[in-house]
Amino acid sequence: MRGYMVATWKMAWDGVKKGQEVLRAGGSVHQAIIEAVKMVEDDPEYHSVGYGGLPNYNGEVELDAAYMDGDTLGYGGIMGVKNLKNPIEVAFDLCHYKRNCLLAAAGAEEYARKKGYAFCDMLTEEAYLRYSRQTKQMDMEKLEAYGGHDTVCVIGKSGDTMACGVSTSGLFMKLPGRVGDSPVIGSGCYADSEVGAAAATGVGEDIMKGCLSFSVVEKLRQGVPVQQACETALREHMERLGRSGHRPGSISLIAMDREHNIGAATNKKAFPFVVGDLERNTVLYAAVNEGGKMSVICPDEAWIQAYQGD
Amino acid sequence: MRGYMVATWKMAWDGVKKGQEVLRAGGSVHQAIIEAVKMVEDDPEYHSVGYGGLPNYNGEVELDAAYMDGDTLGYGGIMGVKNLKNPIEVAFDLCHYKRNCLLAAAGAEEYARKKGYAFCDMLTEEAYLRYSRQTKQMDMEKLEAYGGHDTVCVIGKSGDTMACGVSTSGLFMKLPGRVGDSPVIGSGCYADSEVGAAAATGVGEDIMKGCLSFSVVEKLRQGVPVQQACETALREHMERLGRSGHRPGSISLIAMDREHNIGAATNKKAFPFVVGDLERNTVLYAAVNEGGKMSVICPDEAWIQAYQGD
What predicted TM-score, i.e. pTM, was given to this entire model? Predict the structure, then answer.
């Protein structure tokens, strides 16, 4: 499985298709990734990213995003930002600086406003309805990534340049100010053009405990093949958490090495992801986990119909 | 060099001494670390941590802290928090939860208020005077960690348990909302009782690009001796940044393995750190970097007098 782009979840299909067009038209890998992420951010149908994202415990949509340029290791991230139309644009903007690259909450909003990025109300009526129906008597210790889709992560490679962008509204009903793995370098994503890139989706608190994106890229650096790097990083982390008595929430990983080889792994039963392949096609795959044994399938219509989620 | 505790900078001396007393009296490693960090937070003489910390570009003191329990990999962090007396206490509190462990800005403050943690004005007159004398026409791309001291990081081990706590006010004149490496797991600190713990101080943006604390602990996991793990992680990262044309700011590392062995490295000329040794003494050491060749010395009075900083 090889490609120019790989992205988490079926919801990234239109975005990867657009990204592939950007690359074919001679655009940079950065433009391709930004366009791909923005398509998911702008779509109110996806309740875990950007516009239409599900709100926190106080009913506010708080957004996280990050971008890493694998050539420079330039990293930009924003955390807990409200009413920003396209968080990925600001994360990308910040990755060009040497200082003040990771900004939280009001400070990030102040920066985005000064730079002229668009703001709008990100809470849709549908997301508000879902929030208002949610009981507040829930167990905050059992919050899960939203079933079937979660953070959008897009990895791309063009020429020698690798990069990665991620965007999310985080866990539904999270505490105000809660930050997950997405804007945390090495956890939500990591890219090094000399080696490869990886990104994660799922319960951020559990992903962060293993710095899983950095962990996958380090295995690539040691020469481990990309599919094995994803599976091993995830398995070792699950085993380590198991020894401490902790049963982690859902975690899924994607990665690409510098030869365009793609890997994926999940601790869920199935994890769909989208590849923009070397023939310029956009193809849906799924990592399927049968009792710890991982396989990657190219699902047929029946599988897709049966799959609950985006 | 072996010990129960190791901490960044000479300013941690009193804290480590107190932490050693806590351990000797049968207190937990967590109590020892919290007490050690709090002593630095509470001292207005130290302008890079807690009370008396130097403010951001808008004249506000914004504090970051994190705590990691190496037994559970439980991680708590707060970012960009104002007027909180002891950030390390809230970070430690959060490390006990499975969700909502990393909180930013107003959300973190809301959490701390609800849990009854003390708030007070953290901007001292001296810090304000220094701020008011600072020209705002500075190059934001050249902000440096405050000369001679920076983030306080304390690693401890008692019984089989290893843990780490860090606290900082971040870069002087940082943009509002700017977050450095300190509250970012794997960058500012990382602890795994099965392997070891590491922590970093310096320019957060450059530390984060290499997830340096996680990187050191991964080398320990592979059996690399702790001093070599610190030196190699730092050297490889400097070389990688050098290949991308980036000249990083100051970076210093401390680490301890599960046999109580301690290591340290720096890309500055000298980096003082404090060890609570196995004989219950509190001892100042310094990592000295002569053209890339690292040595650890036990400095004499003359060296300490000549050293500019805390």
Answer: 0.97
